[in-house]
Write a structure and sequence with these properties.
The protein is of the alpha/beta class and 297 residues long. Helices cover 36% and strands 13% of the residues. It is built from eleven helices and eight strands. The protein has an eight-stranded parallel beta sheet with strand order 2-1-3-8-7-4-5-6, sandwiched between helices. Pfam families: Arginase (PF00491). InterPro entries: Ureohydrolase, Ureohydrolase_dom_sf. Belongs to the arginase family.
Length: 297
Amino acid sequence: MPTLPYAILEAPSTLGLATEGVEHLPDRLMDLGLAERIHAHRAERLAVPPKDPMPDPETGILNARAIAAWSPKLADAVEAVLDSGRFPVVLGGDCTILMGSMLAFRRRGRYGLFFIDGNADFFQPEAEPHGEGASMDLALVTGRGPSLLTDIEGRGPSVRPEDAVAFAYRDHKDQEEYGSQPLPKELKAIDLPAVRAMGIEAAAREAVDHLTREELDGFFIHLDADCLDDVIMPAVDFRVPDGLSWDELETALRVALASGKAVGIEITIYNPRLDEDGSAGRGLADVLAAALGAAAQ
């Protein structure tokens, strides 16, 4: 289990989306007492550059140059937390914050990625209808896509495909409809049907076993709120039926954190503007407090 105290970094970027709203994720979770509930230090809130509504002409990706310039700043902030002896809890923001988070660990060694997301996020620019980097983040951090975003600081890929696990994704129909590139065979895939067949604890343990191999220095957790069942987490911009329950997500996080090899976590995509009765945010805060709180004991 993590023996380091937590530090919260607020990274309210929407550079990877055409829409707005997820920038309010940190405020909502902080208002729900997340910092106090996990006894976390509030480290920093990063400023985010303005957005351009038109995709970058060279890459076809919205705000590609802004993302490339901003990601090292987030990486610097993550490294500052690590250097202070704390465990970073990064509150997005959309999924492109992953590029900054993983860059921090790429600078320090060879780290894995536990990618808990309702979508595989492996689109290439020519197949993403809106040019949204938030649909490409797993592809980009594993080296698929334009070098502007796959080789930041000349360190690409930020994570080797064989060191990543795509967990609980369920967007198979959308991948097929829009022509997403397939996940590479070397990237371990445990989609939602596989999670259901194995059971959540066994599935999470298989993922974590892959990420605790001797050659890895640790692993980072990416948590997209859209991994949750659409019934309990409707406050996301791109909704897909089904998903994990609160208990299933808590179990997956507990297994990951209990390994002693998790080095940080980020939370993305929850949009408070779409949370009409506030229940989705409360549930998310409760799960994070339960899993992170238990790991700190």
